[in-house]
């Protein structure tokens, strides 16, 4: 039976053998194209294109729900196979789910009823949540139950944002997007809390594993879910000192974790320092929101981009660079250019957050560095993603 399963898996075109392959490649390409297009629009070079709700609505919705969810899908559809011991989505079902993601992205550029755009957009988020829920709940993986729940909540955040688009309410759009961003931060806390210490131990050859501290992960998750709920309800968009407490708790827990995981040896390993810096951006974002609620910071959008560019973008690039190597049977030695990609992304995040308030040129520089980072990834990793594993195994 195992031989038959192996033979069947090897007959599948490599790009459709596991979820990380199409979604990592398409997500990285989309990251380049979407931010490149956004830059062109900001420069006034594409005035004719007016998607539903305007170009700001497109940018605001597509970065978390188009780019972010694509990479989340690729990682989780691959990881769930290891977690549950059950075959992951592959072949035609995987191609169908990927096609649904593509249709959601293309819908903005084709004249169609707004209701159809909403259906295509929401279809992917809830289909992904359903696929993962089925795998995890059937296997009774209780410690993974929060993952499909958070994915479902991200879908509800997208629904709120799209409802705001339909009724032309910018406030509802923002509420849905910001809630989803902090739900993605919750996933980053869950996944990062597992893989960063594990990857650090493996990458540095440590014999003793890091001791898990589940209470820290559960506390950070609970606080982040409350933050997302406050954003969706609109309460978190009004500066109130009481809300600063939640952000300080999240920051405090994640600081404790990052300090515990730290080893000076990470600076010799690009696949490690990139993960640690990205996780540090998550802490900066939580501290920034606390400062905003306490009246110590004026622009909430700076904190949003700290989370979206530095934390989400940084963790995504670091994860797809490492996971792709491991799941294509290659040694964990990335191409030399990927170190420059990591540096470009984090420098771009610093430009967007620290320099943009003082110069509009920082926006263009941040966008250029973001595009460069993902272009470097695509250049070296695209062949790995569409070709078969180098060790001859399926996957």
Automatic annotation (TrEMBL):
Top-rank lineage group of the source organism: Bacteria
Presence of the UniProt keyword Ribonucleoprotein in the record: no
Key words, A-Z: Membrane, Transmembrane, Transmembrane helix
Protein's name in the database: Short-chain dehydrogenase
Organism encoding this protein: Zestomonas carbonaria
Keyword Iron appears in the UniProt entry: no
Coiled-coil intervals, chain numbering: none
Transmembrane segments: 20-45, 65-84, 91-108, 114-133, 145-165, 177-197, 218-236, 242-259, 271-294, 306-325, 337-355, 361-378
């Amino acid at each position: 039976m195992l031989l038959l399963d192996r033979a069947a898996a090897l007959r599948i075109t490599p790009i459709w053998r596991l979820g990380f392959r199409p979604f990592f490649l398409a997500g990285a390409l989309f990251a380049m194209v979407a931010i490149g297009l956004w830059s062109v629009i900001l420069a006034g070079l594409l005035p004719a294109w007016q998607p539903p709700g305007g170009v700001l609505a497109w940018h605001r919705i597509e970065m978390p729900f188009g780019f972010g969810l694509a990479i989340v899908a690729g990682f989780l559809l691959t990881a769930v196979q290891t977690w549950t011991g059950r075959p992951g989505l592959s072949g035609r079902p995987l191609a169908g789910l990927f096609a649904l993601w593509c249709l959601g992205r293309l819908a903005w550029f084709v004249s169609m009823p707004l209701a159809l755009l909403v259906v295509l957009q929401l279809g992917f988020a809830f289909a992904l949540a359903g696929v993962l829920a089925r795998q995890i709940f059937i296997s009774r993986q209780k410690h993974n139950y929060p993952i499909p729940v958070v994915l479902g909540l991200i879908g509800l955040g997208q629904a709120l944002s799209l409802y705001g688009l339909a009724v032309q309410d910018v406030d509802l759009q923002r509420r849905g997007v910001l809630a989803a961003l902090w739900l993605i931060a919750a996933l980053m806390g869950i996944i990062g809390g597992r893989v960063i210490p594990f990857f650090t131990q493996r990458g540095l050859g440590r014999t003793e594993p890091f001791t898990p501290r589940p209470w820290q992960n559960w506390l950070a998750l609970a606080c982040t879910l409350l933050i997302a709920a406050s954003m969706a309800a609109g309460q978190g968009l009004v500066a109130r000192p009481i809300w600063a407490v939640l952000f300080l708790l999240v920051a405090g827990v994640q600081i404790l974790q990052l300090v515990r995981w730290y080893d000076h040896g990470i600076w010799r390993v690009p696949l490690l320092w990139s993960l640690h810096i990205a996780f540090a951006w998550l802490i900066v974002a939580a501290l920034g929101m606390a400062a905003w609620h306490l009246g110590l910071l004026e622009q909430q959008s700076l904190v949003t981009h700290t989370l979206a560019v530095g934390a989400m973008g940084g963790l995504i690039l670091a994860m797809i660079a490492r996971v792709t190597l491991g799941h294509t049977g290659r040694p964990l030695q990335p191409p030399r250019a990927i170190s420059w990609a990591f540096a470009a992304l984090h420098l771009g995040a610093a430009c967007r957050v620290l320099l943009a308030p003082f110069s509009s040129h920082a926006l263009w520089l941040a966008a250029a560095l973001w595009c460069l980072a993902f272009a470097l990834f695509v250049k070296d990793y695209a062949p790995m993603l569409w070709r078969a594993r180098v060790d001859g195994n399926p996957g």
